[in-house]
Amino acid sequence: MKYKNLKGSLILLTAALIWGLAFVAQSGAADLVPPFAFNALRSFIGAMALYLFYLIINRKEKKPFFPTEKKEKKNYYIAALVCGVCLAVSVNFQQFGIAFYPKGVSSEARAGFITALYVILVPIFSVFARKKLSPIIWIAVFIALFGVYKLCFSGGFDTIYLADILVFICAICFSLHIIAVDKFVGFTGGVKLSIMQFLVCGSFSLVLALIFEIPQINLQNILSATPQILYLGIMSSGIAYTLQIVGQKYAEAAVASISMSFESVFAALGGWLISGNSLKSSEILGCALVFVAITVAQIPEFSKGNSK
After folding, report:
1. How far apart are CA 41 and CA 231, in angstroms?
2. What pTM value is reported for the model?
3. 35 with 91: CB under 8 angstroms?
4. Which contacts (CB < 8 Å, 24+ apart) does range 245-250 have?
5. pLDDT tens digit string along 91-130?
6. Do the beta carbons of residue 264 and residue 272 sit within 8 Å?
7. Distance between start and end Cα atoms, the chain
């Protein structure tokens, strides 16, 4: 069991590394491609990458993508729509947030750690589904609140940006997305649901781009941002998602959550090493506290895993 957890953790850490560096790619593309258009492109590429993966793993079975039974097919459509819209709202709030950070601010670190608050928000929202909340989660919440204060408010209200608020809304939406995926993934399977939700997310973003961003869309800028778009589409959506599926087969749920929460750490490191964005001492403390809160929030699940 310990060997499997170690193997799963290493796989999931690789996925977290890819997702963390995605914040650097998003920040780099923010000056070139408007948010809706960017997310439309990355989502369609992600859907294509995952569909190729689906064809490869199912090449011998040759099952139809959609079930033939009418009720099951309806469940697929509902799952795709709900999860896809939740994902679209999440990623667009995130990309707008990253785009709105002023120059000189470590957008990758701030966005990465604020987004990671979904780990704490998910169990809190689960209370509305009448699930009992461990007292440890409330401890994690208070640590996270203090961490966010040090990250965003320690210099007064002048140090909080509109971007921070948008990314926090993204974290709330990601929490709802995770809950939706948990509800519907049993109907469709992980890879199928991901393909469908990326198609819905891409379509939703494309419509908004055509309505609001036509004057801002520049083909030359899109070509310049091609490396970032491909990274988000193929690496972040395709490969990292596949690694998550494989890693979670080996690692226990709590171990998996902790491993994937390193996404925020890799985002901060990527912003520092690649983009040259440094953090103030108060921001470093804030990031550390948010990470501690994320880890503490996993304790109830970890305790369940050890009791089995």
Report:
1. 11
2. 0.86
3. no
4. 245/190, 245/191, 246/11, 247/8, 247/9, 247/11, 247/12, 247/15, 248/8, 248/12, 249/8, 250/4, 250/5, 250/7, 250/8, 250/11
5. 999 999 999 998 888 888 899 989 988 888 888 887 776 7
6. no
7. 12
Residue 56, both tokens: 């490869």
Q: How far apart are CA 233 and CA 239, in angstroms?
A: 9
Name the least confident of 19-23, 32-36, 207-211, 219-223.
19-23
Tokens 């009992």 correspond to 132
Q: In Å, how far are 51, 67, 73, 78, 222 from 64, measured between CA atoms?
A: 13, 7, 11, 18, 35
Domain boundaries, the chain: 2-307
> pLDDT tier at 271 (50, 70, 90 boundaries)?
confident
pLDDT tens, 189-223?
888 888 999 999 999 999 999 999 999 999 999 99
Cα–Cα distance for residue pair 19/247, rounded to 1 Å: 15
DSSP code per residue over 85-148: HHHHHHHHHHHHHHHHSPTTS-HHHHHHHHHTTHHHHHHHHHGGGTPPPPHHHHHHHHHHHHHH
Nearest by Cα to 189 from 84, 14, 43, 54: 54
